[in-house]
Amino acid sequence: MRPADTLAFAWQVVRGYRARTLLILLAMGIGVAAVVAVSSIGEGARLYVMNQFGSLGTHLVIVLPGRSETAGSMPGVLIGKTPRDLTLEDALALKRSPAVRRLAPLIVGAGDVSVGARNRETPVLGSTAELMDIRHMEMAQGQFLPPGDPRHSLPVCVVGAKVAAELFGTRRALGEWLRIGDRRFRVVGVLASQGESLGFNTDEIVIVPLAAAQALFNTEALFRVLVEAKSREQIAYAQSDIEEILRERHDGKREVTVITQDAVLATFDRILRALTLAVGGLAAISLAVAGILIMNVMLISVTQRRHEIGLLKALGATGRNIRLMFFAEAVLLALGGAALGLAVGKLGQLVIGQLFPSIPFTAPWWAVIAAPLTAIGTAVLFSVAPARRAARLDPVRALSKR
Amino acid sequence: MIRLSGIERVFHVGEEEVHALRGVNLEIERGEYLSLMGPSGSGKSTLLNVVGLLDRPSAGHYALDGRDVTGLDDDALSRVRREKIGFVFQFFHLVARLTAEQNIELPMVLAGVDPAERRTRLARLLAEYGLEARARHRPDQLSGGQCQRVAIARAMSMGPTVILADEPTGNLDRHTGQEVLALLERVHHEGGTVVVVTHDLEIGVRAHRRLRMVDGAIVSDERS
Ligand SMILES: Nc1ncnc2c1ncn2[C@@H]1O[C@H](COP(=O)(O)OP(=O)(O)OP(=O)(O)O)[C@@H](O)[C@H]1O
Ligand SMILES: [Mg+2]
Predict the structure, then answer these.
(1) What ipTM score was computed for the predicted complex, to two decimals?
(2) Alpha helices of B56-114 — where are they, by DSSP H?
(3) For chain A, domain boundaries
(4) Which residue lies with its CA nearest to atom 3 of ligand 1?
């Protein structure tokens, strides 16, 4: 029997038993769609997190006070010695490293910001002009903080878009004065709306010069130092230089934690990939269920069609002919189911994409390939038993019963 | 052409043994027209199935066209069957979802005959059996007589050595039965070999050679 004829025959069967075909298409389709949809949600989550970290800035190294990991040793507070603060002088000393392009010290606090009678509490960031480039901030109006010696400050500030709207209403904020605590600042710039970026919503902050923040919150201690390395390759050098310089300045004690963006990214990437694989695998179980359904439906079909199978043998079909017919039938059903499932999965992905536009839902390539292949694989695997049973039917007995 | 010697066929039903064929010796020459009669349960269908290679004898030898086919495996039997044997059944046994022409084409499809060749033969068969107008109809849209004509055309599609018909008129009224028989006789007139199993004496006597079976054995073999 020619392969094309085997396929054509199987196609006739698939078309001939509509209800059965629909049932199997549905089961296969749901399985494939589940794998595609679920894994695209996982992949979407991964890309979302990657983007969030990515928006932090490139080649970023973050210095925070205190040691975070320390295998076994007690945190400083518990054993009675507080680690020394990270200061502006520490931060400025980091410029000695040839791997560092620029850096921005950061102080964070909550401030009562008011304009006339309007008043609201917002996070207040104290930093330097470099922050803008390191964090890839953009201005809607005016300028960022003016460059200059961070030890001295002008009474100026930059406000987030939402803060500006809330404090000044429709009035133009630029050039106006606002009050934080008991100090007055002139608005020199309004940030472009950027949304969330790892913890800070830049729409809702006020940025003041570092020295002003030190005075405002009455502290010398830095919250973070954001350091940008000269290139991706320089990140590791920057990290070891920073640790070295700060150890020197803190009497040989390691009192800071240095995080590179790469390390954080890689960890998240691993976790989320594993998660996507796991849920994708769970969804693939539904494919196995679909396979078992195919087997049962095929076994029933062998019983229902024993007449026809007996006849085919009487007309000269070999066992191999019959087996191939059943395989072809299973593969056709699986292909149909896989196509249906891919379509439905894509559709579902589009729909959730519409519902959560900020998350980039895309089915990972391995899911798009593996799901249909698994469908066809299970279909063929689970049609082995029915096909063999059909091929072994005794034609005389199959034909004799009406 | 067909030579059966010492054929036995024993069925095991539980503890019991049913001897459906006992020591059957039979030779059929090319171009013969045989009828096979006998009471129900005498082994007519069993003999036909053995001749048609659908069933294997429990003992004895069978040579078809000079070749011993007794020991062949299932697949080899299938291949011999599709080249040399044409079956016609009492209940037609057409595939319900296929059209008349697809049913006729089936043995050629199974044998892997080239599609162009298939079309030529199909057109000839449809014309010969007066089925051109019904080619695209499904079996449930055909009368019993038309169904049996499709079945005979199907049996003839591979140009078989012998046509084996098991009560081909058993499910038809007298008139249609005569028509179907006429078609089988035409096959014989064109040089084909035809074996017809029947309960109808009137049909049986038309054959040139009449076998009678009782209890699994051939008890008479008349020629005219
Ligand atoms: N598969 C089987 N298992 C057991 N016994 C069988 C089987 N097939 C046939 N027989 C028995 O073998 C004997 C011959 O059966 P067979 O069908 O050949 O008779 P027949 O002459 O064709 O009868 P009928 O005219 O009723 O068709 C019967 O006794 C029958 O019961
Ligand atoms: Mg019978």
Answers:
(1) 0.93
(2) 74-84, 100-110
(3) 3-53+266-400, 84-254
(4) B11
